[in-house]
Amino acid sequence: MPAVQETIDKVKAIDVDQYKYGFVTDIESDRGAKGLSEETVRFLSAKKNEPEWMTEWRLDALRRFRQMEEPTWARVSYPKIDLDDLYYWASPKSVEGPKSLDEVDPELLATYEKLGIPLREQEILAGVEPKNRVAVDAVFDSVSVVTTFKEELKKAGVIFCSISEALREYPDLVKKYLGSVVPVTDNYYATLNSAVFSDGSFVYVPEGVRCPMELSTYFRINEQNTGQFERTLIIAEKGAYVSYLEGCTAPQRDENQLHAAVVELVALDDAEIKYSTVQNWFPGDKNGKGGIYNFVTKRGDCRGKNSKISWTQVETGSAITWKYPSCILRGENSRGEFYSIAVSNGYQQVDSGTKMIHLGKNSSSRIISKGISAGKSQNTYRGLVSAHRKASNARNFTQCDSLLIGQDCGAHTVPYIESKNASAQFEHEATTSKISDDQMFYCLQRGLSEEEAVALIVNGFVKDVIQQLPMEFAVEAQKLISISLEGSVG
Amino acid sequence: MNASAPIKHTQAESDLLERFDSAKEGLSGSVAVKALREAALGQIRDRGLPHRRVEEYKYSDLRAYMKSAAPLAGAADEAAARSLIETQDGFGDLDRYRIVVANGSYLAALSDVEALASEGVTLTSVAEALAGEMGTKLVAAPKTGPSDGVIALNTAFLQGGVVITVKSGVEVSKPVELVQVATAKGAQSVRNRVELGEGAKLRLLETFVGDTGEGELNTVFDYELADKSALAATRLIVSKTDAAQLFTTIATIGAEAELKSLGFIAGPQFSRNQQFINFTGENSEAKIYGVTMAGGKSLADQTLIVDHAVPHCNSREFFKTVLDGEAKGVYQGRINVAQHAQKTDGEMMTQALLLSEDAEMANKPELEIFADDVLCAHGATSGQIDEDLLFYLRARGIPEDEAKTLLVLAFLSEAIEEYGEDDVTEGLEARVRDWLADH
């Protein structure tokens, strides 16, 4: 079992507080003034050459944001974030329109190498002619640095670019869909994002097109004190298909960093969007110091008939996660899926889950959530499944299992299941347990060490979800889970 | 949103404040109890009745439901109470002892005081106890969740009730029916306490007869189970009334003890049966069942928090709901497992059957677990009658209505049978049939 051996080696090599991706790249950076204000928003918008309506949209969001209060219902606790002590604009200086890869700061390329971006993508970034194509829209701090394969995608009619660029080149598309899934005032963090979002990806797949490659974005928080406010918008027209991969790593910091992203997906008739995430931001050190605050709003709208949106996530990082990728199943026969693995160790706090809102006839959804808590962490699944009056024959199956490793952690399940239609059929099951002594005994008896045994059993526990990930991610995800659980036994 | 801002009182809330002013002289209690009453009313004054923005009442908005609040019911007429009990008995042949609480106060004259005393069961009036040292113990209930609005309402207006004390080692030979009666219209606020001594066993049947008119019925049961004791409590909430039916259980379970309970709801427009179960001793068990039937525009809420604060305890929760018309069913259940409560085994199941297009069900089964060596699971389903089963029965010549009745009865009986108190099984199933005949 070479893959397992590799996992174990990784685990051995890395200590909890020796975060693999904990380094700071020294690139001169261009920052706006500290603090959240109308000036900041105007400055940000001007820096990005945004159209007038966009500036207004942001200002409107800021005004509404001022009326809102920070939500407290999630099972997470953290010191109050001082929004006026953050920079809302930071961009690596080298970004001023690189004509080719050679012009990209070599430090940046080195960063990606250290990040362990899959080999193929590294080749792309290094300018090597690729065999198998994966397009990378890499976000380094707040601005997309390199967008590869854009031209090739363009041939297929697929638009894949940064949202800033989309605002300049396809303003009508952005205007039509931005904020249509996650309204400006949806929640506290989404509203903040609407006012100050820095950058993110924009994907548009036209009618009948099957996107020729997996689209992928690597987010990276680098500049100290920089709040990251990504905004992603993906639109699949009638009959289109797109698979989008998102992965995150961040350097080690003592100070907590706020990340409040918004992701909006729109699937029209017969379209399908698959959105996969591997999130591995800095979770804080052994003593719970530092780490990223990850407050994300992700929502997909199955607007058309027979449309499908599938969320897959592997959450191993961040000090605090507050994230509920959801599906609005508006179209007839539409389908939503949510596959999640949330691993928490150390002092991590995870409050994550999904919402499946059934509006259309014969809509169906499936939720598989696997939570693993170790160390002194708290791991909560919070989910909503609801069928509205007109959602005849809606179907849902939910399974959420929790695994506890150690005596100081907690696992919680908070599902809301609301059925307003008699023909809707909902099934929900949840279990919480620890790794059984029998399983451990069986493995140990066969010569595995305790850590190897735990890694093996945990990988079996999450198998259902791992299977849903694209190949490149599946391997990475398995490694991440093992690394995250390092130090949880013995 | 701001907690400190004064709220605008609804008609019912204004009525309640007025009710308190006119009733407070007559409400019994020591100085300490009176202070607790004032504090409880202060909570209603400051926060209002519980409403949908309060998480625990998300689906059962009492504030929106209660349009007005009638004054408290006056003293009961003994003869009227006797005749109501005799004519409205739902368990005809059942041989049992009876304890009566009429219009909010314990009525010794109609209770089997001597027969119970000979078995080792003593009865004490709560209204009298409130004035003495016991008073604060009765009112300041332990661990009831975060300042529950319904309990506050109960405390503020508490009229009386009965304390049933079963001596250590006594196994009461017959079931005991605690019947609450309304001989006149008006709200009732009752607190009953059941104290089981070590090794004591009691089968309790909690019923209600009469009509409170527009006044809410608010009853709190406080069960205290000493080590090795066993209580089986069957609660019927079956009045066909518009008055809000509010029932609360606060149970404290000692070591090696067993609590079994069944909450049966059929009939009221607005009902909430909330239970707070606390384990304080090891190796104990709680089996909580619920059978709910709701039709028309009614709302039926079964809410439950089981707190595993000590290791080696088991809990089973099994709730069945059948909904018709535009009725709304609510199930909220939570199993808490504290950090040192290792070897806890908790299993929760809630199932709903929706018979009509417009019925709706909200299920919220929660787990909150801080210990690692536990086995906890919950399940929730909702759907309509299985067409295949219906077809099977009809193909065998059973008319559709009858086939549906059979299936619903079978569905609900699962909980009644697992509860397994043979004394009441027949009576409960008869009530299920009656309800189905009406819907």
From TrEMBL, chain A:
<feature type="domain" description="SUF system FeS cluster assembly SufBD core">
    <location>
        <begin position="219"/>
        <end position="461"/>
    </location>
</feature>
<dbReference type="GO" id="GO:0016226">
    <property type="term" value="P:iron-sulfur cluster assembly"/>
</dbReference>
<dbReference type="Pfam" id="PF19295">
    <property type="entry name" value="SufBD_N"/>
</dbReference>
<dbReference type="InterPro" id="IPR037284">
    <property type="entry name" value="SUF_FeS_clus_asmbl_SufBD_sf"/>
</dbReference>
<dbReference type="InterPro" id="IPR010231">
    <property type="entry name" value="SUF_FeS_clus_asmbl_SufB"/>
</dbReference>
<feature type="domain" description="SUF system FeS cluster assembly SufBD N-terminal">
    <location>
        <begin position="154"/>
        <end position="211"/>
    </location>
</feature>
<dbReference type="Pfam" id="PF01458">
    <property type="entry name" value="SUFBD_core"/>
</dbReference>
<dbReference type="InterPro" id="IPR045595">
    <property type="entry name" value="SufBD_N"/>
</dbReference>
<dbReference type="InterPro" id="IPR000825">
    <property type="entry name" value="SUF_FeS_clus_asmbl_SufBD_core"/>
</dbReference>
<comment type="similarity">
    <text>Belongs to the iron-sulfur cluster assembly SufBD family.</text>
</comment>
<dbReference type="InterPro" id="IPR055346">
    <property type="entry name" value="Fe-S_cluster_assembly_SufBD"/>
</dbReference>
<protein>
    <submittedName>
        <fullName>Component of SufBCD complex</fullName>
    </submittedName>
</protein>
TrEMBL record, chain B:
<protein>
    <submittedName>
        <fullName>FeS assembly protein SufD</fullName>
    </submittedName>
</protein>
<dbReference type="GO" id="GO:0016226">
    <property type="term" value="P:iron-sulfur cluster assembly"/>
</dbReference>
<dbReference type="Pfam" id="PF19295">
    <property type="entry name" value="SufBD_N"/>
</dbReference>
<dbReference type="Pfam" id="PF01458">
    <property type="entry name" value="SUFBD_core"/>
</dbReference>
<dbReference type="InterPro" id="IPR045595">
    <property type="entry name" value="SufBD_N"/>
</dbReference>
<feature type="domain" description="SUF system FeS cluster assembly SufBD N-terminal">
    <location>
        <begin position="14"/>
        <end position="177"/>
    </location>
</feature>
<dbReference type="InterPro" id="IPR037284">
    <property type="entry name" value="SUF_FeS_clus_asmbl_SufBD_sf"/>
</dbReference>
<dbReference type="InterPro" id="IPR055346">
    <property type="entry name" value="Fe-S_cluster_assembly_SufBD"/>
</dbReference>
<comment type="similarity">
    <text>Belongs to the iron-sulfur cluster assembly SufBD family.</text>
</comment>
<dbReference type="InterPro" id="IPR000825">
    <property type="entry name" value="SUF_FeS_clus_asmbl_SufBD_core"/>
</dbReference>
<feature type="domain" description="SUF system FeS cluster assembly SufBD core">
    <location>
        <begin position="184"/>
        <end position="411"/>
    </location>
</feature>
<dbReference type="InterPro" id="IPR011542">
    <property type="entry name" value="SUF_FeS_clus_asmbl_SufD"/>
</dbReference>
